[in-house]
Specification:
Elements (H helix, E strand, L loop, with lengths): L8 H15 L12 E2 L4 E3 L3 E3 L2 E3 L2 E8 L3 H13 L10 E3 L4 E3 L4 E6 L14 E2 L4 E3 L3 E3 L2 E3 L2 E8 L4 H12 L9 E6 L2 E6 L5 E7 L12 E8 L3 E3 L2 E3 L2 E7 L7 H14 L7 E3 L4 E3 L7 E6 L6
Antiparallel strand pairs: 1-5, 2-5, 3-4, 5-8, 6-7, 7-8, 9-13, 10-13, 11-12, 13-16, 14-15, 15-16, 17-20, 18-19, 20-23, 21-22, 22-23
Length: 303
């Protein structure tokens, strides 16, 4: 997207959502109307805060009311990015209770344990089972990731599920990895390093078919040309070529996303209940909606 996230909370959200998904049945999730503790925990990898709310690193129980566990995980990750405590309206936080409410829905978090266990000896690597499928030619910053199968190796306290989720996240951010992560390339192997927490993993392109790895379900639609410098609400859209992207979990079609983007450009804004996230150049029909899409500038064509 136009600008990567600057915090690591989203990784924790993806881990929590992955675990929560594995624990649910195949039917669509239903919001809990009474206070219910989620079956999966949410991992905060570093000491963090949301305004006056202190959140030490560790696993957190999440209790929801009139909200699904997956929705609460995504919201908690978003709030961790708003470390100044200025949450997206109408949500409000209570630092003492470690809770959040929008008037009709709420959730709270409670530290379930101490900080994550000490990482293994630096340099030790574990090869993840199966491979990760990149379904189309992609890129992260200037590093290309051609369509195919990738072998993941983890080290320094990271699990295979966490590395798979983080790799999928970076592939949805072709402008590059977000701090504190860095990316280096050596032949067919890409190395990802968390320069704050010390977590690391590598991906190596291999042959063969997918045998159970992470997989990638985001879809890149056809290229769209913006003919002049424009904006959609707070999102500045310089003239140039953009890919319209349907992120993981989106239920939109490419045709619907392109039509919606044209309407937003014509109006120079988004109508309620649509929301534009200028940091990531994404649009969603509500904070927890699966009706969402984003735009990615094609390198060299924008500006």
């Amino acid at each position: 997207m136009l600008k990567g996230l600057t915090r690591v909370g989203l990784l924790a959200a993806l881990i929590a959502v992955l675990a929560a998904t594995a624990a649910t049945v195949t039917a669509a999730p239903v919001a809990e109307t009474a206070a219910t503790r989620c079956p999966a925990t949410f991992q905060v990898l570093h000491n963090d805060k949301i305004g006056a709310m202190s959140l030490p690193a560790g696993a957190y129980y999440v209790t929801v009311s009139n909200l699904t566990c997956a929705q609460a995980s995504v919201l908690f990750a978003d709030f961790l990015q708003d470390y100044d405590g200025d949450l997206t309206y109408p949500w409000r936080g209570n630092a003492k209770a470690k809770s959040f409410t929008n008037g009709s829905s709420s959730f709270s978090v409670k530290l379930a344990g101490k900080t994550p266990p000490a990482p293994p000896t630096p340099g030790n690597q574990v090869t993840c089972p199966g491979t990760f499928s990149v379904l189309h030619n992609d890129r992260i910053g200037s590093v290309p990731f051609p369509r195919g199968q990738y072998q993941l190796k983890v080290q320094r306290g990271l699990t295979c599920a966490q590395a798979s989720s983080q790799f999928a996240l970076f592939l949805d951010q072709p402008s590059g990895v977000n701090a504190p992560w860095s990316l280096s390339i050596n032949g067919l192997t890409a190395s990802f390093q968390d320069n704050m927490g010390g977590f690391a993993f590598t991906t190596t392109k291999v042959g063969g078919s997918n045998t159970g790895g992470g997989g990638r379900t985001a879809v890149t639609c056809t290229t769209f040309r913006v003919l002049h410098n424009d904006h959609v609400g707070s999102l500045y859209v310089p003239k140039g070529s953009y890919d319209i992207v349907l992120p993981v979990g989106s239920t939109m079609s490419c045709a619907a996303a392109q039509k919606q983007f044209v309407a937003f450009l014509d109006a120079e804004n988004v109508p309620s209940p649509w929301i534009v996230d200028a940091n990531n150049a994404t649009f969603s029909r509500g904070y927890s909606s699966t009706i969402k899409f984003g735009i990615d500038p094609i390198k060299g064509s924008v500006g």
